[in-house]
Amino acid sequence: VQLVESGGGLVQPGGSLRLSCAASGFTFSSFGMRWYRQVPGKERELVAGISAAGGMTTYADSVKGRFTISRDNAKNTVYLQMNSLKPEDTAVYYCSRHGEYWGQGTQVTVSS
């Protein structure tokens, strides 16, 4: 199983970023996927999840209405569209297959 995140970077408050996670080594369309984030010194936080077929999604209260998780099973990729970003969204974002396997993470920094 391999998960490779991309799309992180530095953005101003109120801006947007789209994270991508390319998956390989398993039947992507058979598994729910999740995005987590972690700030140094704090526990990893579940940000969003999506079911295998993409019909069901869930979000942390802190990101509801601002973030959207989606997936393209033909491309073995899961996305996290992040809008109206706030400084408190600054973290390393991780893609995960059901909390079992993890990518290397991508840094998102929201700062003016």
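Next protein, fold it too.
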Amino acid sequence: QVQLVESGGGLVQPGGSLRLSCTASGFDFSRASMTWYRESPGEGRNVVAGISASSSNIHYENPVKGRFTISRDNAKNILYLEMNNLKVEDTGIYYCYAHYGYWGQGTQVTVSS
């Protein structure tokens, strides 16, 4: 069956870093465009960054440009989100999404001093 499993979340101080991973199985990951979303209290679920199947097209939302890096390893079926210089407003549940309509269960990121 299809599975997307996020990991790497946690509690970090402002200015810190985290790397999220999303491990995929049960579908052809190498052909799927992928997106990271963040769900924050009162703001709903919003796009953070997206990447095409071949990594040739990458998109970042303005608040994370220059701080976050999305990447993927199609040989390992893993999607990554490297997050640097984290801010309090980056707090939320991070989900990976495969553009076949598949969601992961999410991983919590809390940025707090």
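About the second fold: The two ends are 40 Å apart (CA to CA).
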